[in-house]
Design brief:
alpha/beta; Leucine Aminopeptidase, subunit E, domain 1; globular; binds adenosine-5'-diphosphate
């Protein structure tokens, strides 16, 4: 499994799946979540509502999948990152779950390329260095038959610097 770093907007990435840092309502929000729903159109929200009607809210650390509407990707995997509250062990485990469960879902769909944003490092205030370390380690430790490439999409300069160092 190769890893790559891209600085930019995840809604523009033509990967098989892009990951959304969603909130538990699955009904959209700010940050990358808002950008994905805006660029992807109402198809994604409609599928999110269907999932909610079936299973209720999405718990922190869990992941669900929809199609990608008007985006160049094929699927959007929505995962709910932890809100940072200073409980490092608990939050780290939940962030690791986000990456693991998203990868597992991608694997079950036979996906080859997947793009992650820096989950929880925006509105949810997870410390960026720690979040980057968890993201890279979890991806690098994941054993996969189908996934060939994981792209880390950094939107801000801090994360770009952090990921550059981690991936070198
Ligand atoms: P969270 O609530 O999980 O913190 P945010 O969307 O606020 O989610 O932030 C997560 C990360 O996504 C942040 O590092 C933010 O800079 C980044 N981000 C915001 N918009 C985009 C985008 N269009 N593409 C990729 N990353 C984005």
């Amino acid at each position: 499994m190769k890893t790559e770093l891209i600085k930019g907007d995840i809604t523009k990435i033509p990967a098989d799946a892009i990951i959304n840092a969603a909130n538990s309502s699955l009904l959209g929000g700010g940050g990358v979540d808002g950008a994905i729903h805006r660029a992807g159109g109402k198809q994604i929200l409609e599928e999110c509502i269907q999932i909610r009607n079936r299973q209720g809210k999405c718990k922190t650390g869990q992941a669900v999948v929809t199609s990608a509407g008007n985006l160049p990707a094929k699927y959007v995997i929505h995962t709910v990152g932890p809100v940072w509250n200073g409980e490092e062990d608990k939050s780290s485990k939940l962030l690791e779950d986000c990456y693991k469960n998203s990868l597992q879902l991608a694997e079950s769909l036979g996906i080859k390329t997947i793009a992650f944003p820096d989950i929880s490092t925006g509105i949810y205030k997870f410390p960026k260095e720690l979040a980057g370390k968890i993201a890279v380690e979890t991806v690098q430790n994941f054993q996969s038959d189908s996934i060939e490439k994981v792209i880390f999409v950094c939107f801000d300069d801090d994360n770009e610097k952090i990921y550059k160092k981690l991936l070198d």
